[in-house]
């Protein structure tokens, strides 16, 4: 009686599935750690940018360079006088500041009873104060007075000249190469004294209103004056800036930590699965 021969069943590679899972876990862990590093870099860049723009604005420091009145031009009905004032302003901020005039400026003579007599107009050409640098700004005046009133004004030893202008200050913060613009519109009242006999022009001063304006004496020495933003507007922009950067810091920081934990866990699981697969392979080979 012959018993038919049966081949023993082939051994199943029990280690194949754990090894594949281990490779997948290791790859996922490496990808997670890479994304964590990217988020950490974004977190650091955002922090550096936030520190660079804090405080949001530092006042421009301006000093007068030259102020002068031209020779009067007269006819039978009018007296025309042109004038110019120049200032050099340094910008300590990490962004350029653009200044432009809105509408038409007005020029007055401040009389003894504190009333304003309209006498002409003024223009402030657009100027940009560069990052960490300085530029020269101008104010050009054109004074036109009827001959009937000119005699009284020209007879005064000293005139107090006041100008009213509306200016816009704009700046652009950059984040990841994207410009974020903001601006402020502000009314300014500026004044100075002038001695007509010698055409000597004294230093100027500016304020938000005529009541706050203190005009320096014609013989006073020029001083460096700071150009401030409106406190309410500056505080509101600072809050928006801090909220936006804070949100980016929170998202990138949490994402970096979560991805780092996930990546380490997957790498550890992948390594354990690979070692288990190698152990099973060695065990099967011995059997």
Task: Outline the structure in words.
- By secondary structure, the protein is an alpha+beta fold.
- The protein contains 3 helices and 12 strands; from the N terminus they run αβββββββαβββββα.
- Strands 1, 2, 3, 4, 5, 6, 7, 8, 9, 10, 11 and 12 form a 12-stranded antiparallel β-sheet that branches.
- α1 (16-52) runs antiparallel to α3.
- The radius of gyration is 37 Å and the shape is rod-shaped.
- The mean pLDDT is 85.
Question: Notable features of this structure?
Answer:
about 290 residues, alpha+beta, 12-stranded antiparallel β-sheet, about 35% helix
Concise synopsis of the structure shown:
The chain is 36% helix and 37% strand. It is an alpha+beta fold and 287 residues long.
Give the helices and strands as they follow along the chain: HEEEEEEEHEEEEEH
Class by helix and strand content? Answer: alpha+beta
End-to-end Cα distance = 32 Å
Number of strands: 12
Largest sheet: 12 strands, antiparallel
Mean pLDDT: 85
Strand fraction band?
Answer: 35-45%
Q: Which consecutive residue ranges, at least 5 long each, have pLDDT under 50? A: none
Helix content: 25-40%
Rounded to the nearest angstrom, the radius of gyration is: 37 Å
The shape, in one word, is rod-shaped
In DSSP terms (H or I, runs of 4 or more residues), the helix count works out at: 3
